[in-house]
Amino acid sequence: MADRAPLNYVIYIAATPEKVWEGFVSQESNRILFMGAELEAEWKAGGSMAWVGPGPDGKPMKYVHGEVLRFDPPKVLQYTFAMGQSDTTSRVTLELVAETEATKVTVTHDQWADTDSAYAATADGWSRILSRLKTLIETGKTFKPH
């Protein structure tokens, strides 16, 4: 099975790597970014992680789930990624590098299976998530997703 092209994003956020890291891993910022979804995570290699919120029937469901592969604050977070009830995973790598008065954020989402139906939605979603995160960190508020 061939892999799809990796999704790559680079943005700069006017904050320290520690503050940007907190934006990615804190329950509070994730709740804001993902419209109330709760981030449940064991922050260690091999730990589970999931964004959980109400499903169509009102019962809790996992929107996204995966396993932490690498946890090196505030530099690298890497995890597997699967949407909904799917067991088809891809890999996300977040890298933070301090620059003068900003943090360079590089997101690489790779190891996509050709059969992964989440590819298109995720490609669109990363730009929105990163834009909302940047706005939240720099201003303390953000905008609603489209």
Quickly describe the structure:
With 146 residues, the chain is an alpha+beta fold.
Primary descriptors:
146 residues, alpha+beta, seven-stranded antiparallel β-sheet
- Poorly predicted runs are none
Question: What is the N-to-C order of secondary-structure elements (H for helix, E for strand)?
Answer: EHHEEEEEEH
Q: Give the strand order of the largest sheet, numbering strands 1, 2, ... along the chain.
A: 1-7-6-5-4-3-2
Gyration radius, rounded: 15 Å
Descriptive account of the structure:
A seven-stranded antiparallel sheet has the order 1-7-6-5-4-3-2. The radius of gyration is 15 Å and the shape is globular. Helices cover about 25% and strands about 40% of the residues. About 20% of the residues are buried. The chain is of the alpha+beta class.
List the helices and strands and how they pair.
Blueprint: E1 7-13, H1 17-25, H2 27-33, E2 38-41, E3 48-54, E4 60-72, E5 76-83, E6 90-99, E7 102-110, H3 119-139
Antiparallel strand pairs: 1-7, 2-3, 3-4, 4-5, 5-6, 6-7
Helix pairs in contact: 1-2, 1-3
